[in-house]
Task: structure prediction
Amino acid sequence: MFSYPTVRASFIFLAIALGGLLVADIAITTANPWQDLGRFFLGVATPNFFSTEGLMTALLRTVAFAFVGVTIGSLAGFLLALGYRFLPVRIFCAFIRSIHELFWALIFLQFFGFHPLTGVLAIAIPYSGIFAKVYSEIFEESDPEPGRLLPPGTGSVSAFLYARIPDCWEQIRTYTSYRLECGLRSSAILGFVGLPTLGFYLESSFSQGMYSDAGAMLILFYILIATLPLWVRPKLLPFYILAAPFFLGDGFPIVWGNVERFFTEDIIPAPLRDGEGLAGLSAWFGDVMVTEALPGIWNTIVLTQIALVATGIISLLAFPLISNHFGGPVRRTSGHVLLVIARSTPEYILAYILLQLWGPSMLPAVVALALHNGGIIGHLIGRQTNTIQLRPDSPTGFTRYSWELVPRVYRSFLAFLFYRWEIIMRETAILGILGIYTLGFYVDSAIQNIRFDRAMVLILITALLNIGVDALGRYIRRKLALQTMQTC
Amino acid sequence: MVIKHLRKWLVSGLLSFSAVTAVQAQTFVFTAIPDEDETKLVERFRGVADYLSEQLDVDVRYIPVKSYAAAVSAFRNNQVQLAWFGGLSGVQARRLVPGSEAIAQGVEDEAFVTYFIANTSTEIEPAGSLADLEDNLRGKTFTFGSKGSTSGRLMPEFHLRDTFGEAPESVFSRVGFSGNHTRTLRLVEAGTYEVGALNFQVWEKELADGNIDTDAVQVIWKTPAYPDYQWTIRGDVNERFGEGFKDKVTKALLELDDPALLESFPRSGFIPASNDDYEPIRKTAENIGILD
Result:
């Protein structure tokens, strides 16, 4: 068995995660975790839709920010994809997508303040990096044949529009609409840092233990996402895109002096600002590294590795829920509902809920990341098994699962998992804002102490770490000859 | 019933649309650090907004924020002109906005106190000095309030370092930041953290309102007094809202005597304050490295 590289790789990652468990801070610290969990589920079962007058507005804003952010992101991403063969463009895109939406929001909040632009850019910037990458992959994989058949002298723009785009259009459309769903999730969590979206009210209700209010918001959010195909119609899109900017809210006017101040003073390392020169700078940088960056990096890596393997385990357990090869239609439908809930709930919100219920440790983060990402991969793998034709006399039950299906889907399972590695790490860093000691914790502390120079250094370190894991993930996928696919 | 609610929804949706077009340039905006449950803050500061609006004859609006730093940033960026800050956030804000001034503080804020509280399952008995509690506190789990709070973080951290000569992380087995005082109280009461530190006013008010299970949580130590919350105003409000505006705001705050409104803070009244009153806070913050 160990002669298979995929199996070896799996066991190496499993061993790393087990090692991580030994050093990780895993605990349930609340006195009555199950009682609270019970109260939470009771709240979801008895939702109160009329608690806040602002709820409808928040929902509208959530949709508006998602539409404007994703639209700008996809347009900018499309343009960047055209230049993706140039290394500087690739590096630029890798960089902007390695910084999480919430970090972008925290940065823009410092100089745009509560202006709609803060939320729009926080979504549009990282999304354009992601769109650029995926669109360019789609272009690359398109059939080159139509282009060869064009008469000599055809302009490159015409060639692109008539020979390339039609072939990719379906994929671009599917992926973009998929990103819109991600955009809704991103938009919702921006409320946690103060933007007027759903997260704003969700955080308030949760922190005050008003579970029925919180339950109502979660249910509305699921409905919003589950009904996307019904109300997002190609014909209605132009209307939504034109209307969305008017529903972002008013916020406050931008004071451009603040923007200038941020870039010319705030983020300049303190020793340089105070004229202490290079000696002061290296002492300052050393202090940031030792007291904040290194502990943050360590915890981020430990948590990421545990969450990655936990995601894998959940995915393998979850895919039979929706697979045609097991159970009847009733079980599959409830399986679908479960997986939709798991993948529609942003990790950040899941982690926030679990932290409230179980107390602070890495456990809520691991469970949140594993449920969300496992829900996504489980869904994709489950769908894939539905295309597999088994022999009529093939075994059933657990034997079918372990000897027929898992070996057939294992390679694409690993491909998805390594693809999501970087995404899991990006989320892990962000979860620090909730009080788990990953890089986000130190970024948040620096911002709370109005030390944007430190915050920027830590955000840059987080970005580099993500870029590194992204490269490593790609290297492993290539080494194991795993095909890649685009997911959120 | 349902129809009524639906109408409320639709109206709020439409309002959010029309709000875009009606940007009011001359609205006097203020904020406050989110030191307590949001419902309470919104209730309290909407009252203050109505009161100030009446007294000052301009539109006054309160905006809620999600963190202490967001309050400071909004003040610094001139998106709010007045703020109800804690001791530390006020010092941070006034350092960043030259010309800004502390104009009023609560009667209680001259001598503010932090309470250390413990879950009764720890069997820690109240003590007169923090040093006496050393054996009891070591290895326990501990929560501050917000990272930027004076009574929930700065002062307790100062006293912990001062007494034990170590960072809180090495005294306790786990150190957290609950976010605000109400939550610190709830977390220690529930046993999520064994020990915590919070604003004494929040404790006293919740106690008086019967919201504390005194069998589950008790006060184990009180810090010496220090100056805390204050109203801070930007230096450039007179240019924007007219000559003498700052004095009008100060006067309105000092004359606030609506018992219900004061009770919601809870303060017995407001008295004059000055930037110099907060020197001790600045020194303490520099001492423990929160302020450069």
Q: What stands out?
A: The two ends of chain B are 57 Å apart (CA to CA). DSSP finds 13 helices and eleven strands in chain B.
